[in-house]
């Protein structure tokens, strides 16, 4: 009787094979999976399979921009993400270089990356992006990134289609060298805190023949705000 009852019992989510969990994970976002992970030990194991093989996109943000609200424990499951194609990070100040470096190293198939207002993420943290050979869209806004990162992208022959470089620590020379090696760019957003970007625009006009959109509304130009391309 006991054996018959067991064999006739309905299948539950806990009985699903890994390939089914992967398919389910593709329809869930980061927060859905993390919440499911907290339900039980079995759910934790299943969620980690979803994170590792099913999740394709992740978007994390701390809108209040205060360290006290940036709970480091919420980032623990991120180490299981290895198949991401798109990621967005905004104002997560406890997500520092070591964790960012590990995360990006674990996700070499990234195609789109956005990092905004992350004051504790420096060039050292995002250098693994140079190993993402499928990277086509990159957004960096108010992040302490310098010319070393742009040189690494160039050296690894990363050719972007869209890029935003706004209020970083890059120099005009570093930006010009970068744009010289980006013939596939179709959309550029560029602004520097203090430097006149006019020389960059001249380089872009010569070396980015596929350009369709150029946004410089936050940028500094020369005194008369004119630039002949």
UniProtKB/TrEMBL annotation:
<dbReference type="InterPro" id="IPR032675">
    <property type="entry name" value="LRR_dom_sf"/>
</dbReference>
<protein>
    <recommendedName>
        <fullName>F-box domain-containing protein</fullName>
    </recommendedName>
</protein>
């Amino acid at each position: 009787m006991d054996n018959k009852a067991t064999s006739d019992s309905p299948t539950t989510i806990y009985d699903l094979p890994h390939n089914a969990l992967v398919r389910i994970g593709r329809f869930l976002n980061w927060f859905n999976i993390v919440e499911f992970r907290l339900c039980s030990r079995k759910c934790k194991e299943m969620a980690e399979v979803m994170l590792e093989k099913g999740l394709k996109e992740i978007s994390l943000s701390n809108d209040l921009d205060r360290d006290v609200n940036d709970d480091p424990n919420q980032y623990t499951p991120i180490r299981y993400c290895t198949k991401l194609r798109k990621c967005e990070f905004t104002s997560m100040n406890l997500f520092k270089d070591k964790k960012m470096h590990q995360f990006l190293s674990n996700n070499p198939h990234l195609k789109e990356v956005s990092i905004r207002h992350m004051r504790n993420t420096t060039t050292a943290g995002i250098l693994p992006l140079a190993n993402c050979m499928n990277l086509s869209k990159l957004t960096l806004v108010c992040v302490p990134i310098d010319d070393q990162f742009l040189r690494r992208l160039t050296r690894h022959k990363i050719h972007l289609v869209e890029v935003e470089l706004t209020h970083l620590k890059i120099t005009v020379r570093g930006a010009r060298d970068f744009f010289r090696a980006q013939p596939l760019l179709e959309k550029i957003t560029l602004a520097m805190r203090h430097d006149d970007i006019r020389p960059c625009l001249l380089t872009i006009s010569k070396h980015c023949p596929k350009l369709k959109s150029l946004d410089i509304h936050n940028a500094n130009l020369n005194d008369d705000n004119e630039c002949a391309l």
